[in-house]
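Case study 2.
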Amino acid sequence: QLHLVESGGGLVQPGVSLRLSCAASGGTVSNYVMGWFRQAPGKERESVAVIIPNGGTTLHADSVKGRFTISRNNAENTVDLQMNNLKVEDTAVYYCAAGRRFTQAMGEYNYWGRGTQVTVSS
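Prediction:
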């Protein structure tokens, strides 16, 4: 029943910031571990960041640590991904997902959005 919709992607130059948002309906994000994943052309989908229901613990992939920050706004029923200092290698379709386990494993997430494209190019 949980429906997730990502927004905020776009075409930007290296060094620019973007903020992605994942809006939920049919359920509340406070009941779930939430994650952001990305998939670049020809590559496997990978975890970007994960956040527990109360937002007290997060996990970010080494490739984005220090540049990306996952957060949740339970009052707005959204989960965001602030992306700073974007690099060409960040180009991918970004997906939000909901699950019950705090993990980077894609298979443990039950609900997925359709994704939003982020393209970083000079």
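The chain has a mean pLDDT of 97.
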